[in-house]
Amino acid sequence: MFYSFPAFIDGSPIFISKQATDYRDNSSRGLPTVHPYILVFDSETGVLDSIIEGRYFAATRTALSSAVGVKHLAKHPKRIAIFGTGVQGRSHVRVLSKLFPTIEEIRLFSPASAHVEQAVSELQSETSNVLIAASSARDAVLDADVIVTATSSKTPVFNHTDLKMGALVIGVGAMKNDQEIPTETVSSSQVVVDALSNVVMYDEIRLAQNMNKNLKVLGEIGALIDKNVKIHLGMTTIFKHHGLPVTDAALAETLL
């Protein structure tokens, strides 16, 4: 698939267009599934200013968006579980460990145990937190305050019954025809998203609404920050996001 996402922030000296391909079969070829590029243009002249190779850029932006969710939806997290050891999973380790001093332990899990061991070995020097290669999905999730799913899985990556009540689950990998978070978890949780317009792309929410007809998305993370949306502390929360072009524009302006 090919995507094109333009974005502009009023008053900014630049605007961007994010171009990306998404080939899910690439994982079997040993290649990244997503190849994004950020085209940066001068707002006054329309001249192409620069092209940013977007994999690290997008992973950092996604992890920063997750960090916004942790800040507003989790209370002093100590134990983090991250599913996925690719560029997204690794970026979440780097970003969350730097921004949240209360974190004591980060558990990484992937069905490919060799990938987990390699990721832990490479990332340990970049964080002062205890970094653990979880031996199973259950070991990763048990008592975790925050769970991040950063995979391209077609089936849930953990069991609903292993989840701690009141945990925050952040889903960043699954889109249409994917599912990382169990339907039981989504249907029994309060759900916050990056943008209501993106809900149609999140099959995990659609499946949960089929199970629980009363399930409604509470609103967008921006509305929650503005105090126009309220959550119930102690209840399990889902923060589903896949990245907004406007956040790409904001990060590009900061870098340039």
UniProtKB/TrEMBL annotation:
Matches recorded under SUPFAM superfamilies: NAD(P)-binding Rossmann-fold domains
UniProt cross-references to Gene3D superfamilies, sorted A to Z: NAD(P)-binding Rossmann-like Domain (3.40.50.720), ornithine cyclodeaminase, domain 1 (3.30.1780.10)
Highest taxon of the lineage: Bacteria
GO cellular component, one term: cytoplasm
GO molecular-function terms, A-Z: hormone binding
Cross-referenced Pfam families: OCD_Mu_crystall (PF02423)
Protein name from the UniProt record: Ornithine cyclodeaminase
Species of provenance: Candidatus Uhrbacteria bacterium GW2011_GWC2_53_7
